[in-house]
């Protein structure tokens, strides 16, 4: 069975736009023998049952996320496909700690540079996604990823990189000034922010914060690398990835602060991905076992559209989330003990019940409203028996507002403007 | 009293603007008695030393017991380890100038009553007792710190807030019930807390996979246990420091019998590493 690795598509002269995917590709290219795996730039979250990329497919088994894939490869090959098998205990601990460090500190940096910084997002990231996504995903996914990245980096306090947020804040302040002072709008001086002055200022303000963040991230890695060839003497699994993906976007600070790290990154990149070959469609990586993604089917497009619609509808979103949680808990390979499984399922059931209660409340409320409207005569049902009564109503209401004709719900709704 | 021989209209005008005589007499006597200022309430009274505001209950605050919040406990433990005297005050997020506990009101100098938020506590402590800044001494500090702030914290959030039984048994009595006696507000607060924890976990993953979180935490404990090795304290230091405090904050709360956990998978994972358990027991003697 050939293993199939589904990832985000290539961008920025790298095999994939996503750091986790890059890490997984790098790991697979180091550990898996040639011909035993295929790389599919499917760029579609719906291919994987967990809704996450990277995802490794082996027949009917799906594994997603970098660490799970590493674990799965080790188990599947009974220890043969494992870059870490020769590490001793302290090295193993270091490996784990540095992996967690890269994940927790590197991810926000990537988020900041790729998504939150407005210039980068609109100038590079969004077009890059547009290049490999198919309709309708190219309109749905990038904004989703954008807002997720914003949420992840909120606590860092560098939101002023985000021009959109800046503009919102300015408007808020403006309307607050209007409300507080009761000053006519025309008299409030509009701060004259051109885009360039905005950029200049935010760049200065954020420079220090960003410097601190990047150096916090790179310094330990640089120190750890030292003069060695790899981070841990032996091949180390998780390190190549985030550095690699950071390289095109953070090259500035990277090069200034961590010269050894840059050379290391370049070398590992060559080793994992091979030399990029420029072609008319950007860079390609002939060393990797590409297989083109299947043409997206009409059914898949429909599913994506429906899924997006359902996820943005208040109640359906909860239903879907609970179902996902329950599925995860009850799947046989979740590794949960019996009681835990029961607890998680119970939780899912309970929140489902909560939701049904709230749906019932809303429905009951709506029914009561409609009932009331029927009762007071704002709404009436066209039936044969009710015609006379209705005509009476008509007369009464017409004297109140001649434009109002209580025939049907649509009419009522259409005429509310006239009533008000 | 108007002087004699004034024109008539002036006395007429005065009748509008002067205070009538009886009322003026009455007000001339004011204040009748000046009482001394009230004493401050008993619990607020003598502010001799530094006060650390943390999540804890009243008896815990009196006896200086460990806080039940890992962030608070970390700083409480750190200040104890470096030998700064302080008293614990039970508080909540709304009392804090930054919106998050812990914060510290320094006892000296008394005129500058600026509260110190948690991210400046270490700097303050270094100025007070001239202990060393441990981040500078070992490059692994930040790296292993990310295990605590990321993996163990996520598993902790899951275990405390999203496990239904634990939430009812541990989180609700400690975080929700002291805030109010109104059951409606309690219900709303509880839901808010759970939603906040869920949002936090969903920031990094698309769905919350309990097995994954616990596996991560298990790996993190293993790495920390290897880092500690046979030493008394982390990084082979003679005295416990900030990193020991950070680890202790989680290990103590996970192992503490008084917390009343219903499901405690983290404790099972932690007990596989006896040196971490001993480390916690050693540090508990400071309290």
UniProtKB/TrEMBL annotation, chain A:
Question: Residue limits of the Mitochondrial outer membrane transport complex Sam37/metaxin N-terminal domain?
Answer: 21-145
A biological-process GO annotation: mitochondrion organization
Pfam families, from UniProt? Answer: Tom37
The record ties this protein, via CDD domains, to: GST_N_Metaxin1_like (cd03078)
Predominant location: mitochondrion
Q: Which UniProt keywords apply?
A: Membrane, Mitochondrion, Mitochondrion outer membrane, Protein transport, Transmembrane, Transmembrane helix, Transport
Q: Where are the transmembrane segments?
A: 355-374
Quote the cellular component terms of the Gene Ontology held in the record.
SAM complex
Zinc-finger keyword on record = no
Superkingdom of the source species: Eukaryota
Compartment(s) where it occurs, according to its Swiss-Prot or TrEMBL record:
Mitochondrion outer membrane
Q: Which residues, by range, are in coiled-coil regions?
A: none
InterPro entries referenced in this protein's UniProt entry, alphabetically: Mito_Protein_Transport_Metaxin, Sam37/metaxin_N
Q: Which PANTHER family match?
A: FAILED AXON CONNECTIONS-RELATED, METAXIN RELATED
The protein in question is named Mitochondrial outer membrane transport complex Sam37/metaxin N-terminal domain-containing protein
| Organism (species) | Penicillium alfredii
From TrEMBL, chain B:
For this entry, the protein name equals Mitochondrial outer membrane protein
PANTHER family assigned to the protein according to its UniProt record, in alphabetical order = METAXIN RELATED, OUTER MEMBRANE PROTEIN (SAM35), PUTATIVE (AFU_ORTHOLOGUE AFUA_1G13180)-RELATED
**Residue span(s) of domain Metaxin glutathione S-transferase:** 219-283
A biological process (GO) of this protein is:
mitochondrion organization
Q: Which residues form a coiled coil?
A: none
InterPro entries per the UniProt record, alphabetical: Metaxin_GST, Mito_Protein_Transport_Metaxin, SAM35, Thioredoxin-like_fold
What's any one GO cellular component for it?
SAM complex
Q: Where is the Thioredoxin-like fold domain?
A: 70-166
């Amino acid at each position: 069975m050939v293993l199939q690795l589904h990832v985000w598509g290539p961008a920025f002269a790298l095999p994939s736009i996503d750091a986790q995917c890059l890490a997984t590709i790098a790991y697979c290219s180091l550990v898996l023998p040639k011909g035993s795996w295929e790389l599919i730039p499917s760029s579609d979250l719906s291919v994987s049952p967990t809704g996450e990329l990277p995802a490794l497919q082996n027949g009917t088994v799906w594994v997603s996320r970098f660490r799970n894939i590493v674990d799965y490869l080790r188990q599947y090959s009974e220890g043969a496909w494992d870059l870490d098998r020769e590490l001793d205990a302290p090295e193993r601990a270091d490996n784990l700690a540095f992996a967690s460090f890269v994940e927790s500190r590197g991810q926000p940096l990537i988020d900041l540079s790729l998504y939150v910084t407005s210039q980068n997002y609109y100038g590079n990231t969004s077009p890059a996604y547009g290049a490999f996504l198919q309709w309708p995903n190219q309109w749905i996914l990038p904004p989703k990823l954008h807002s997720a990245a914003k949420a992840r980096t909120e606590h860092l306090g560098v939101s002023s990189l985000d021009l959109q947020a800046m503009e919102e804040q300015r408007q808020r302040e403006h309307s607050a000034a209007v409300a507080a002072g009761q000053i006519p709008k025309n008299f409030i001086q509009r701060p004259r922010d051109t885009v360039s002055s905005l950029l200049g200022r935010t760049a200065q303000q954020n420079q220090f914060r960003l410097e601190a963040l990047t150096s916090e991230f790179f310094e330990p890695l640089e120190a750890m690398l030292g003069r060695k060839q790899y981070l841990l003497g032996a091949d180390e699994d998780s390190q190549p990835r985030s550095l690699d993906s950071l390289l095109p976007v953070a090259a500035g600070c990277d090069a200034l602060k961590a010269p050894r790290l840059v050379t290391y990154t370049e070398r590992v990149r060559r080793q994992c991905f091979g030399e990029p070959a420029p072609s008319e469609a950007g860079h390609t990586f002939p060393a990797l076992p590409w297989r083109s993604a299947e043409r997206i089917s009409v059914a898949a497009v429909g599913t994506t559209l429906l899924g997006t619609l359902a996820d943005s509808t208040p109640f359906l979103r909860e239903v879907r989330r609970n179902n996902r949680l329950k599925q995860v808990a009850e799947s046989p390979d979740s590794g949960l003990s019996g009681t835990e499984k029961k607890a998680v399922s119970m939780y899912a059931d309970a929140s489902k019940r909560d939701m049904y209660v709230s749906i019932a409340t809303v429905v009951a409320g709506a029914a009561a409203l409609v009932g009331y409207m029927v009762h007071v005569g704002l709404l009436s049902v066209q039936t044969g028996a009710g015609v006379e009564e209705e005509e009476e109503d008509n007369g009464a209401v017409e004297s109140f507002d001649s434009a109002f004709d209580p025939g049907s719900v649509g009419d009522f709704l259409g005429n509310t403007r006239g009533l008000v | 009293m108007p002087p004699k021989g004034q024109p008539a209209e002036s006395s007429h005008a005065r009748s509008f603007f002067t205070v009538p005589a009886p009322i003026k007499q009455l007000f001339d006597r004011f204040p009748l008695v000046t009482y001394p200022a009230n004493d401050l309430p008993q619990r607020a009274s003598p502010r001799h030393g530094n006060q650390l505001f943390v999540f804890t209950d009243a008896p815990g605050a009196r006896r200086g017991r460990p806080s039940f919040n890992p962030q608070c406990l970390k700083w409480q433990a750190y200040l104890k380890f470096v030998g700064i005297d302080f008293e614990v005050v039970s508080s909540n997020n709304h009392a804090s100038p930054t919106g998050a506990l812990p914060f510290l009101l320094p006892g000296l100098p008394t005129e500058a009553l600026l509260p110190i938020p948690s991210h400046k506590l270490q700097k303050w402590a270094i100025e007070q007792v001239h202990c060393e800044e441990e981040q500078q001494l070992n490059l692994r500090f930040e790296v292993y710190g990310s295990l605590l702030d990321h993996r163990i914290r996520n598993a902790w959030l899951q275990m405390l807030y999203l496990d239904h039984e634990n939430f009812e048994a541990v989180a609700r009595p400690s975080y929700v019930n002291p805030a109010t006696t109104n059951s409606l507000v309690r219900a709303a607060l509880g839901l808010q807390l759970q939603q906040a924890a869920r949002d936090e976990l969903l920031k990094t993953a698309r769905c919350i996979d309990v097995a994954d979180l616990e596996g991560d935490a298990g790996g993190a404990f293993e790495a920390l246990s290897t880092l500690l090795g046979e030493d008394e304290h982390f990084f082979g230091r003679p005295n416990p420091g900030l990193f020991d405090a950070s680890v202790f904050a989680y290990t103590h709360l996970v192992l503490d019998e008084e917390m009343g956990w219903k499901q405690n998978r983290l404790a099972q994972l932690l007990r596989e590493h006896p040196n971490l358990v001993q480390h916690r027991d050693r540090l508990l003697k400071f309290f």
